[in-house]
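# nightly structure sweep
# worker-07 picked up a monomer target from the shared queue
# config: single-sequence mode, recycle default, output format = structure tokens
# input follows
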Amino acid sequence: MTKGKTLGILLLGAGLLFSGCTKTGTINNDTQQHEEHIMLETETEPESEQIAEESESEPIITKLTLSAAGDCTLGVTQQHGYENSFHEYYDTYGEDYFFENFKQIFEKDDLTLVNLECVLTDSNNRVEKAFNLKGKPKYTKIMTSGSIEAVSLGNNHTRDYGKESLVDTQEALTQAGILYAYNDAVSYFTSDEGIVVAMVSASILASTRSYETYLLEGVAEAVEADADIIIACCHWGIEGDYYPSDYQQQVGRKLIDAGADLVLGHHPHVLQGIEEYNGKIICYSLGNFCFGGNRNPAEKNTIVYQQTFTFADGMLQPEIDAKIIPSRVSGHSNYNDFQPMIATGEQAESIINKMNQYSAPYSNVTFDESGTLVIKSKGNYEGTE
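# output follows
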């Protein structure tokens, strides 16, 4: 109510009071108290209306939390026998075993995304190469049991047992209700609050750089579809190298410029650093996670990258709320038990320190002792823009 309307009501009340005096000479005390009560209510109305207006102007806040982990080979190489293999562990401990240590974390988030680095097939049509990675179609239950909703398939093992092995994998994932992104197949996830996440994925190793087009066109499609969050999963880099190549950095930044909100890297089988670029995050390599392809990998450090995206009235907010969960691919130091675990104590501290070391040459990102991502001021790091 405006001040002008309030003044008019006060004058009207005063006129009625004066009129009552000329007609009767006196006013009943109850009537006077009643009119004073009306005037008090009139005077306080603007404050209540202001509070209502302020509450109506408060933005509607929605959030989505994503957990991302590295290479998951739910199977074996062609060189493995049965003893101490991923197959034996599955037969002995069941589907719940492999992601048991992370299930509660993955259940609490809105979306968990990993790189599935194997085919899930019964095909024996092995393509001749050094390492073929294969699991069984029923191993999708390992992921659904561990609350994993989506996978990236853009890697160099999606056709290890012929084209039919890729088709078998896609069919197994679809039947299990697990989303996948692969080349020109963009995947869309919708949260309970209606936030739409688009995922694109492709392998852009040195021999297949033309596949970069899949990523850029996928991001463009997701932008056109008005997805709320766009995630680009890139299979790239050099195996065993803890620092990204110039090509990784060029493509990662190009994808952000094209509209991606987060870039996730895989393939080196070791951790690489994390960079903030134009207000978005590039994780150059998440390393291995649940990796059946090696019975005793030399590098057992890994992380889960977790980010919460906040929207106000449907608009993505610029603040970056992210952390890493320092982890190990195995609970044992001298062999792989295929059950990744959360690192604690000195191990956790060491992994966080190494992530800071890997990020330092080119990034203004650092991680505090809890693993929380901190953006340093521009130029306050070893590298250059």
